[in-house]
UniProtKB/TrEMBL annotation, chains A, E:
Enzyme class name: translocase
Family from the record: Belongs to the ABC transporter superfamily.
Record keyword NADP present: no
Pfam families: ABC_tran (PF00005)
Keywords, comma-separated and alphabetical: ATP-binding, Nucleotide-binding, Transport
Protein name, per record: ABC-type polar-amino-acid transporter
Catalyzed reactions per annotation: a polar amino acid(out) + ATP + H2O = a polar amino acid(in) + ADP + phosphate + H(+)
Keyword ATP-binding tagged: yes
GO MF: ATP binding; ATP hydrolysis activity; ATPase-coupled polar amino acid-transporter activity
Domain ABC transporter, chain residue ranges per copy: 13-257
This enzyme's EC code(s): 7.4.2.1
InterPro entries registered for this protein in UniProt: AAA+_ATPase, ABC_ATPase_HisP-typ, ABC_transporter-like_ATP-bd, ABC_transporter-like_CS, MetN_ABC_transporter-like, P-loop_NTPase
Lineage: Bacteria, Bacillati, Actinomycetota, Actinomycetes, Micrococcales
From TrEMBL, chains C, D:
Key words of the record: Amino-acid transport, Cell membrane, Membrane, Transmembrane, Transmembrane helix, Transport
Domain ABC transmembrane type-1: 71-278
Record flagged with keyword Cell wall biogenesis/degradation: no
GO biological process, one term: amino acid transport
Organism: Subtercola lobariae
Protein name listed in UniProt: Amino acid ABC transporter permease
Protein family (similarity comment): Belongs to the binding-protein-dependent transport system permease family.
Any Pfam family hit: BPD_transp_1
GO molecular function, one term: transmembrane transporter activity
CDD domains (alphabetical): TM_PBP2
GO CC entries: ATP-binding cassette (ABC) transporter complex
Topology in the lipid bilayer: Multi-pass membrane protein
Length: 261, 269, 305, 305, 261
């Protein structure tokens, strides 16, 4: 699904030796990873392996401690001027975040706003676009996730699956170039998982670049172009879903897959 | 009979006293006087108005008239009068203060009236109290009052030497609270300035005045400023000989309280 | 043994077990309740009948002009002082949670100082600030040169001193309340907002503060009620709020208890109005939050229903 | 373009990006901070030097016996009144959450009444109750027969009236605080405890109240601080607490500002001690609760770390 | 696994026409169900079908509105005297609850107590047994769930799987005759599910009567004696795991299973 291949800087996400420490504990221990434009990359791995942390780095929610991380050709957290790395201003970081949409495990919809208000909040307040343009778009997004009639509801009135679909619509409303999903179905009742995965699959088919942390191996197999297995802050193994699931090379990958399947 | 409280009888301007005024006050033509908050009858709001009336505001107005100054009455709680004078917010206060050496470190004083201390008791004085028979009884007093700091220690000493228990004092922030403690039977007597006690007895049939003693002068407090205190004392010296002074005292039933000598910084006790 | 299988009536607040059911009796609870009701009725009866309360005097003064203007002043002071206190308290709360240690220390010191000193002292201080600083000078500290702005006595009227004292003090309490409210907002809300490109002021005003409201409203209601009553402290500046107006009247007529009742009636009326709006606001900001939480609050004498 | 792949130093509080990194400068923030520090220092310098404060008089009175005994009374009143207020407030909170409507109504009316009337009025009421009820009679209401217990003045000493007034009033505020604390305990905790056979008092005292503590402690700290200062209201009953002791002294010598400073220093000392223990208690009862929650409170000027 | 069969009152749980309404909505619409002593019954069904409500009725946490529910021969919520049903006192209900242990979806450990304190709380405070007897027992239970060394930890310091195992130990400490599980693994990360199911399986093998609401069909198939499919407040279908999973009779069962599998 990758649309265009240059040397390395055509990639949507490019991580080179990315490290991240909190205090004195190192969570990411040198991650190298390339996410091609238009591809779906699935991140799997045991709890605490650093998947969420890495995703947050991509979205500028955390600043990398070492190594370089490029998202859409832009260095995350720093600016390079005269060969020096300058820390970015919070304002610029916030702007940079708009290029990626993020969907969280626990939805994190704004509980004090209706579904429609949730969706139009960022386009109107952050991007400063007029409401009359944004509302019809939001309505279309709602229909796309199958919830065209729930715009006036409050998040709390919806099921988990519906909330997660709204969260996807909210992220899409900012027209991101990249979508990040952090275990988007793991807080859902098993029967609600399907509806969210369906929306994600439809999104992948539009050519959206996606990075998905997930334990839904079925989804990874069916929709993913690339599967990355992380453990203890490093990428242990990566490749096509077939390769990783059917013939894992590392013992750690094998052990993990035997538990999850 | 329709005269408003701000009307005081006319007095002549004492031009000699005027000459003594500090230049600041002379040029502004205004004397700013702090009057304590509501305490009938010495100072109180005229019914239904924001105008202060009573012996203290009237004396202040007379002093101002004698000095040819316009008097600006500022009502303030006691807690903020003295800092306010130090801050230059007020020039003078007329608030029935008893001059003591301790207080003279902060203010200058000029006598303007003499009042006594009265003992209020329950109607018919069931305990037959006099100021000299208070040993072992419960007596309410005003915080920091002359009665509390000067009279009571003397009586206590007498009680001790007579082998009797000392007086049980309660200090109130407000004479009214002491009076209501007396009416509810919590204390046996209230010992306070006679005008206030007489007024309370008038209002409240269940209490009576049992004894009045110790008629001593009270003084106007002036900011520490040698020019101002001489001017005020000169004004008072001529004022106390005037008819207006007597008329004002009589209006509040305090005709006996007239003084003949406006002494400066003459400490009591 | 018979088993019931009939269809169930739909009026279901009471158990609709189809066998004859004997509801549980709570003899002790009932007895306590009866005693309490009798005591309450007795107190009410006594209060109405006891001549010591002088209800005639109460009726005479309850709408006296002086009382009404005192009540108006109390309401006015409360509104202005709370408004300033809330705005300034919010700024202080944000400073205390800031990453900048200087801001944290300054806000912390402010809260410590203003919560730690009596309002009375603060009021007297502001009123008499001229004793310490006869002219207000905008200039360099440590005795450096400066521009004279004006005499403190002219600048600080009693009502200004009252508002300064009450609102600066209130800001310290509100800062603590708002800080705890901000702390109660789920971390995920920050992440979600920042992931959408929100930041700083926008994140605070659109996402965090509206959600903090839910937690902030009840203690703020307490604060407003305290402030309504606390304005009586300004009587040291000879400003006649509601309570002081009553005191002025009873100073002249010695009808202490009836006039205190008059003041209390007004305070009760104000508090009731306030509680009404507080309830509305709580519902307004509780909207969209877990209904189950509110269900869980009726405890513990509830029967397993 | 060079990519760093070297191993990372472990002293990691600062970014350990191995390229030379230019940290972000915050010129505006820095400027504000510098100005604030200078102002604070200036104020401190001025306060120390300004002769209007009369530090000599402050030093003379700060340990005066009258002040010390006033401070002791303030502390004593606060401890007793808060203890009664907390216990009674807990009972009221439980009553307000009860399924029994009579309990709910009575507790609600209590809170409404006592929050709605000024403490001053309540204190004066208790103190002067003898004017209304010269003898206290335990008996039937509506004028029924009763047993005379004794004279109100004997039974209700000024200090008793002070404690009654302060603690009954405090109970109403504490009831609201504890009610909100109980409401914050997760519903699942009730289920789990009841599933284990716990009930009533046990469920409350072992499971619900200890968890409510976390939410209850900060506003209770506010209440204690308010009470420390609020005890000055008892001066209407001729009881000399800390502030009133200072007032008694300056009534005699007119050194008002220095004596108010003396009182403020004591209040600040008490508040500081209290805040210290409050912090300890908060940590103690915060133990076992989500650490992430506390991490989320440092906002919003923090950099993405 | 049923040890002894009488007419009907040897069953551990016997539900006859059990109905439950909240306000005017009826959640349980006449449940008939028998749980034999020593058997493992798995309850499955879509969200909102009333599984949790029924489990709470069994444990006296809710009072049935109509029909009769016997647990260990005792009528739930009522006492029968002189042919009349008397509502039970809260105290007696609390006592009755001790015969069943319950494990919740969200663990509900007491966060302010250590693991050991969690376990000994009910035996010492409710059953009034001396600490010196209870502590060694608690220690044994901890070892049984594989956490012998975590007694001094606070629940928050443990992973979800560990917390759920502690919750099981806590319920067992009261020596219940019956264990109720309400989706005990659905709040867990997929790789932690296994450790909890293992503990449950071991418990089933000791002959404990268990009622388990679960979406883990693998567990139901392997450990369950009986599977009950509920929908909209009624039992739609029940039988052996083989029957229900492999040849479901009702369209609703089929539709549900197709989603969950
Ligand atoms: N802000 C932080 N400060 C300190 N440690 C953190 C922070 N955020 C995460 N960690 C730690 O980093 C490690 C990795 O966390 P991360 O959330 O990235 O793992 P994960 O792979 O997403 O796991 P999971 O599957 O449980 O979500 C964990 O041990 C976590 O405790
Ligand atoms: N206390 C209550 N008051 C009112 N309605 C309730 C109450 N408890 C549960 N309900 C309602 O009863 C219905 C059944 O709930 P229940 O929790 O038993 O379903 P469930 O089968 O366990 O579903 P899930 O798989 O989502 O846990 C739901 O619609 C729920 O909203
Ligand atoms: Mg994660
Ligand atoms: Mg359920």
């Amino acid at each position: 699904m990758a649309t265009q291949k240059g040397i390395m800087n055509t990639a949507m996400v490019q991580a080179i030796g990315v490290r991240k420490q909190f205090g004195s504990t190192e969570i990411l221990k040198g991650i190298d990873l390339t996410v091609e434009r238009g591809s779906v990359t699935c991140l799997i791995g045991p709890s605490g392996s650093g998947k969420t942390t890495f995703l947050r780095c991509i979205n500028h929610l955390e600043k990398v401690s070492a190594g370089r991380l490029y998202v859409d050709q832009e260095l995350v957290g720093y600016e390079e001027r005269n060969g020096l790395l300058h820390e970015k201003k919070e304002k610029d970081t916030a702007r940079a975040r708009m290029s990626a949409g993020m969907v969280f495990q626990r939805f994190n919809l704004f509980p004090h706003m209706t579904v429609l208000e949730n969706i139009i909040e960022a386009p109107t307040r952050v991007a400063g676009r007029p409401k009359r343009d944004v509302i019809p778009e939001a309505q279309k997004l709602l229909e796309r996730v199958g919830l065209g009639d729930r715009g006036m509801a409050y998040p709390q009135e919806l099921s988990g699956g519906q909330q997660q679909r709204i969260a996807i619509a909210r992220a899409l409303a900012m027209k991101p170039k990249l979508m990040l999903f952090d275990e988007p179905t793991s807080a859902l009742d098993p029967e609600l998982v399907g509806e969210v995965l369906e929306v994600m699959q439809a999104l992948a088919e539009t050519g959206m670049t996606m990075v998905v942390v997930t334990h839904e191996l079925g989804f990874a197999r069916q929709v993913g172009d690339h599967v990355v297995f992380m453990d203890a802050g490093v990428v242990v193994e990566s490749g096509s879903p077939d390769d990783v699931f059917n013939s894992p090379q590392h013992a750690r990958t094998q052990a993990f897959l035997s538990k999850v399947l | 009979a329709t005269s408003s409280a701000t009307d005081v009888p006319p007095v002549a301007v004492d031009s000699a006293a005027v000459k003594l005024l500090p230049p600041g006050i002379a040029s502004s033509g205004v004397l700013r006087v702090a009057i304590p908050t509501n305490e009938p009858p010495t100072q109180y709001y005229e019914d239904g108005t924001q105008t202060m009336t009573g012996i203290n505001p009237d004396i202040a107005r007379l002093i101002g008239a004698t000095l040819g100054l316009k008097v600006e009455i500022d009502v303030a709680n006691f807690d903020s009068i003295i800092p306010g004078m130090a801050a230059g917010r007020y020039d003078m206060t007329v608030s029935s203060m008893t001059p003591t050496t301790e207080r003279m470190q902060v203010l200058d004083f000029v006598d303007y009236l003499q009042i006594g201390s009265s003992l209020a008791v329950a109607q018919n004085n069931p305990l037959a109290l006099k100021v000299t028979t208070l040993c072992g009884h419960k007596v309410g007093l005003l915080t920091g009052s002359y009665q509390l700091t000067e009279n009571i220690p003397t009586y206590d000493a007498a009680c001790v030497s007579a082998g009797q228990p000392t007086i049980e004092t309660s200090e109130f922030q407000d004479t009214r609270q002491a009076i209501s403690a007396l009416t509810s039977g919590r204390i046996d007597a209230v010992f306070a300035d006679s005008p206030i006690v007489s007024y309370a007895a008038l209002q409240n049939p269940s209490i009576a005045v049992a004894d009045t003693i110790d008629v001593t002068p009270v003084a106007a407090g002036v900011t520490k400023n040698p020019q101002l205190v001489t001017a005020v004392s000169a004004a008072l010296a001529s004022l106390i000989t005037s008819d207006a002074y007597r008329q004002v005292l009589n209006k509040y039933g305090l005709g006996d309280g007239a003084i003949t000598d406006a002494r400066v910084n003459f400490a009591q006790g | 043994m018979t088993f019931v299988n009939r269809s169930v009536e739909t009026d279901a607040l009471t158990s609709s077990q189809s066998d004859p059911v004997v509801p549980l009796r709570h003899p002790v609870r009932l007895a306590i309740a009866i005693v309490l009701v009798i005591v309450a009725a007795g107190v009410a009866w006594d209060v109405a009948m006891n001549r010591g309360y002088r209800w005639d005097v109460v009726a005479q003064y309850v709408f006296a002009p002086r009382i009404i203007s005192g009540a108006a002043l109390t309401v006015g002071l409360t509104i202005v002082a709370m408004a300033i206190g809330i705005v300034f308290g919010t700024i202080l709360a944000i400073m205390r949670l800031s990453a900048n240690p200087i801001f944290r220390v300054i806000a912390g010191a402010y809260v410590w100082f203003f919560r730690g000193t009596p309002v009375l002292v603060q009021l007297i201080f502001w009123y008499n600030i001229a004793a310490l600083y006869p002219v207000i000078v905008l200039g360099l500290p440590f005795g450096g040169p400066g521009i004279v702005i004006g005499s403190a006595n002219v600048l600080i009227a009693p009502i200004t001193a009252a508002l300064l004292g009450l609102s600066l003090n209130e800001a310290a309490y509100m800062a603590e309340i708002i800080r705890s409210g901000i702390g109660a907002v789920d971390r995920g809300q920050y992440d979600a907002a920042r992931a959408l490109g929100m930041n700083g002021r926008l994140l605070m005003s659109r996402i965090v503060l509206p959600q903090a409201m839910r937690v902030v409203i009840p203690p703020t209601g307490n604060e407003i009620i305290s402030m309504l009553k606390g304005t009586s402290l300004v009587s040291v500046l000879a400003i006649s709020d509601l309570l002081y107006s009553a005191q002025i009247i009873y100073a002249a007529n010695y009808q202490i208890i009836p006039l205190l009742i008059v003041a209390s009636l007004w305070y009760l009326a104000m508090t009731s109005v306030l509680s009404f709006f507080q309830g509305k606001l709580e519902r307004r900001y509780g909207r969209g939050f877990d209904v189950r939480t509110s269900r869980s609050r009726r405890w513990p004498l509830r029967k397993a229903s």
